Amino acid sequence: MLDKTETAILKLLEDDGRLSYAELGEKVGLSKSPCWSRVRELERQGVIRRYRADIDAAAVGLELHAFVQVTINSARHTDFEAAVNRHPSVLECFTTAGQADYLLHVLVRGIGELDELLRAEISRLPGVQKVETTVCMKTIKHRGSVMACLR
């Protein structure tokens, strides 16, 4: 379980991962060194997995998000998951309960690239039996805060 200081640190870093330890410490009531120690421990525990920039996909020419439901041969889960983890166009992959086995979030330049991705790549991943795709028309909310989900 996280204490109040760790929760505050995580909320602040999730909002702005570029805060200095001095700034972060000031906001949570710690000096720089204890703040650094807390952050390092959260990293060591795997609570903080990494730091990265939030790139605007459309600004770099990637305009089409799609959600792909994939049903696979049950003996191929390990191979499929390994292939998905290596695939650069798959942003996220989730196992699901329901009609499909997996839900993939893919990102491409446009509909032609999506067609090529589905026909030539996704459908040929290990064990794939069925693919159903939903094309995103407009993003209403882009990745909310994980820490805000804590209640």
How would you characterize this protein structure?
This protein is α+β, with helices and mostly antiparallel strands and 151 residues long. Helices cover 36% and strands 20% of the residues. The protein has a four-stranded antiparallel sheet with strand order 2-3-1-4. Pfam families: AsnC_trans_reg, HTH_24. Keywords: DNA-binding, Transcription, Transcription regulation. This is Lrp/AsnC family transcriptional regulator.
Quick recap of the structure?
With 151 residues, the chain is an alpha+beta fold. The chain contains 5 helices and 4 strands. The model has no long low-confidence stretch (mean pLDDT 96).
Strand content: 15-25%
Across the major sheet, the strand order is 2-3-1-4
Order of helices and strands: HHHEHEEHE
Distance between the termini: 13 Å
Instruction: Supply the helix-strand structural class.
Output: alpha+beta
* Low-confidence runs of at least 5 consecutive residues: none
List how many beta strands DSSP finds: 4
By oligomeric state, this entry counts as single chain
Report on the biggest sheet. Answer: 4 strands, antiparallel
Shape: elongated
Number of helices: 5
Radius of gyration: 20 Å
What is the mean predicted local confidence, pLDDT?
96
Fraction of residues in H or I helices = 25-40%
What descriptors fit this protein?
151 residues, alpha+beta, four-stranded antiparallel beta sheet, 4 strands, elongated, Dimeric_a/b-barrel
Summarize the SSE layout with pairings.
Elements: H1 4-15, H2 21-28, H3 32-44, E1 64-72, H4 77-86, E2 90-95, E3 102-108, H5 111-121, E4 128-135
Antiparallel strand pairs: 1-3, 1-4, 2-3
Helix pairs in contact: 1-2, 2-3
